[in-house]
């Protein structure tokens, strides 16, 4: 086994030990196929008011602009599928937000992985990315063989579906690179047919400005009246295109203590959410991604859903 193979093997073993579902590695370089796709998507204003998507266009496509002398993109998946689901008669919260905010949890794990690489291999420079920097997570994960980009534009894996977070370590270390996998969506259109707001405008193309997650999390203005009655009771995020995906029959519950749901999230009724106070909001969503909307945004969403 040469040094590259040895390093690659030990990084993947450590990623597993840290609780990551899987780890794939690809050569850092310009994402040629993604460039025209991203440009076209932005030109059509599919990002709505998410103007940050227009920033750092070059960096999104080229990790060597984020990390000097970058050689490898290490992509990692962390399962968030919960063992229990919410009360079915309540307003719905996206499963990824049941527990603590994933950004902090994954950042810590990535720091540990980088520290492991540096202590085992030597002087390696790198940066950790969790969905908050201009990195095309799904494209890198697909390039690294961790799954394929489905018709709902989520990364899908045959063995475990799509309920997981994606993160990266970009390092200036040459490693063994994985090969991408094939698309297994076939003729299925379950996600396109089920989307309540018809946000999947074509196979493999989502209009972000029509997505329930965009409306309930990103949009700071009033919710558009023409969407009234179309949110299917989603108050924060939306999982419809994942819930109907046949590959998610293979989702298995995670065993990450920090992602365990607050009992109130599982048990609250619509009335409980409608009467939520500042104190309850702060208690239920302490360290949660839901805090992004703040109480005012959350109440706006609840009010919009009330019949």
UniProtKB/TrEMBL annotation:
<keyword id="KW-0819">tRNA processing</keyword>
<feature type="binding site">
    <location>
        <position position="188"/>
    </location>
    <ligand>
        <name>[4Fe-4S] cluster 1</name>
    </ligand>
</feature>
<dbReference type="InterPro" id="IPR013542">
    <property type="entry name" value="QueG_DUF1730"/>
</dbReference>
<keyword id="KW-0408">Iron</keyword>
<dbReference type="InterPro" id="IPR017896">
    <property type="entry name" value="4Fe4S_Fe-S-bd"/>
</dbReference>
<feature type="binding site">
    <location>
        <position position="155"/>
    </location>
    <ligand>
        <name>cob(II)alamin</name>
    </ligand>
</feature>
<feature type="binding site">
    <location>
        <position position="241"/>
    </location>
    <ligand>
        <name>[4Fe-4S] cluster 2</name>
    </ligand>
</feature>
<keyword id="KW-0170">Cobalt</keyword>
<feature type="active site" description="Proton donor">
    <location>
        <position position="131"/>
    </location>
</feature>
<dbReference type="GO" id="GO:0052693">
    <property type="term" value="F:epoxyqueuosine reductase activity"/>
</dbReference>
<feature type="binding site">
    <location>
        <position position="238"/>
    </location>
    <ligand>
        <name>[4Fe-4S] cluster 2</name>
    </ligand>
</feature>
<keyword id="KW-0671">Queuosine biosynthesis</keyword>
<protein>
    <recommendedName>
        <fullName>Epoxyqueuosine reductase</fullName>
        <ecNumber>1.17.99.6</ecNumber>
    </recommendedName>
</protein>
<comment type="pathway">
    <text>tRNA modification; tRNA-queuosine biosynthesis.</text>
</comment>
<feature type="binding site">
    <location>
        <position position="152"/>
    </location>
    <ligand>
        <name>cob(II)alamin</name>
    </ligand>
</feature>
<dbReference type="Pfam" id="PF13484">
    <property type="entry name" value="Fer4_16"/>
</dbReference>
<dbReference type="InterPro" id="IPR017900">
    <property type="entry name" value="4Fe4S_Fe_S_CS"/>
</dbReference>
<feature type="binding site">
    <location>
        <position position="166"/>
    </location>
    <ligand>
        <name>cob(II)alamin</name>
    </ligand>
</feature>
<keyword id="KW-0004">4Fe-4S</keyword>
<feature type="domain" description="4Fe-4S ferredoxin-type">
    <location>
        <begin position="175"/>
        <end position="205"/>
    </location>
</feature>
<feature type="binding site">
    <location>
        <position position="60"/>
    </location>
    <ligand>
        <name>cob(II)alamin</name>
    </ligand>
</feature>
<keyword id="KW-0846">Cobalamin</keyword>
<comment type="similarity">
    <text>Belongs to the QueG family.</text>
</comment>
<feature type="binding site">
    <location>
        <position position="211"/>
    </location>
    <ligand>
        <name>[4Fe-4S] cluster 2</name>
    </ligand>
</feature>
<dbReference type="Pfam" id="PF08331">
    <property type="entry name" value="QueG_DUF1730"/>
</dbReference>
<dbReference type="InterPro" id="IPR004453">
    <property type="entry name" value="QueG"/>
</dbReference>
<feature type="binding site">
    <location>
        <position position="213"/>
    </location>
    <ligand>
        <name>cob(II)alamin</name>
    </ligand>
</feature>
<feature type="binding site">
    <location>
        <position position="191"/>
    </location>
    <ligand>
        <name>[4Fe-4S] cluster 1</name>
    </ligand>
</feature>
<comment type="subunit">
    <text>Monomer.</text>
</comment>
<keyword id="KW-0560">Oxidoreductase</keyword>
<comment type="function">
    <text>Catalyzes the conversion of epoxyqueuosine (oQ) to queuosine (Q), which is a hypermodified base found in the wobble positions of tRNA(Asp), tRNA(Asn), tRNA(His) and tRNA(Tyr).</text>
</comment>
<feature type="binding site">
    <location>
        <position position="131"/>
    </location>
    <ligand>
        <name>cob(II)alamin</name>
    </ligand>
</feature>
<keyword id="KW-0411">Iron-sulfur</keyword>
<feature type="binding site">
    <location>
        <position position="245"/>
    </location>
    <ligand>
        <name>[4Fe-4S] cluster 1</name>
    </ligand>
</feature>
<feature type="binding site">
    <location>
        <position position="185"/>
    </location>
    <ligand>
        <name>[4Fe-4S] cluster 1</name>
    </ligand>
</feature>
<keyword id="KW-0479">Metal-binding</keyword>
<feature type="binding site">
    <location>
        <position position="195"/>
    </location>
    <ligand>
        <name>[4Fe-4S] cluster 2</name>
    </ligand>
</feature>
<feature type="binding site">
    <location>
        <position position="220"/>
    </location>
    <ligand>
        <name>tRNA</name>
    </ligand>
</feature>
<feature type="binding site">
    <location>
        <begin position="238"/>
        <end position="239"/>
    </location>
    <ligand>
        <name>cob(II)alamin</name>
    </ligand>
</feature>
<keyword id="KW-0963">Cytoplasm</keyword>
């Amino acid at each position: 086994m040469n040094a590259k193979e040895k390093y690659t093997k030990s990084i993947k073993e450590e990623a597993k030990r840290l609780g990551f579902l899987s780890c794939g590695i690809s050569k850092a370089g310009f994402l040629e196929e993604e460039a025209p796709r991203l440009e076209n998507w932005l030109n059509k204003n599919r990002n709505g008011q998410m103007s940050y998507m227009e920033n750092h266009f070059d960096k999104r496509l080229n990790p060597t602009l984020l990390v000097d002398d970058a050689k490898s993109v290490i992509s990692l998946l962390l399962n968030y599928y919960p063992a229990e689901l919410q009360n079915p008669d309540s307003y719905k919260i996206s499963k990824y937000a049941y527990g603590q905010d994933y950004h902090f949890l994954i950042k810590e794990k990535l720091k540990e992985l980088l520290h492991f690489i540096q202590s085992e291999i030597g002087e390696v420079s790198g940066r950790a990315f969790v969905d908050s920097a201009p990195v095309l997570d799904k494209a890198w994960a697909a390039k690294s063989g961790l799954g394929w980009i489905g018709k709902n534009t989520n990364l899908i894996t045959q063995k475990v579906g799509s309920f997981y977070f994606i993160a990266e370590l970009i390092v200036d270390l040459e490693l063994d690179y994985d090969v991408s996998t094939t698309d297994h969506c076939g003729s299925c259109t379950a996600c396109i047919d089920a989307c309540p707001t018809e946000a999947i405008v074509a196979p493999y193309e989502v209009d972000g400005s029509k997505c329930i997650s965009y409306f309930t999390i990103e949009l700071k203005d009033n919710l558009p009246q023409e969407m009234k009655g179309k949110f299917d009771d989603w108050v924060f995020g939306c999982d419809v295109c994942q819930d109907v995906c046949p590959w998610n029959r293979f989702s298995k519950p995670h065993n990450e203590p920090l992602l365990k749901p607050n009992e109130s999230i599982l048990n609250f009724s619509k009335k409980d959410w409608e009467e939520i106070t500042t104190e309850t909001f702060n208690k239920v969503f302490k360290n949660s991604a839901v805090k992004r909307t703040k109480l005012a945004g959350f109440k706006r969403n609840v009010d919009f859903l009330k019949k």
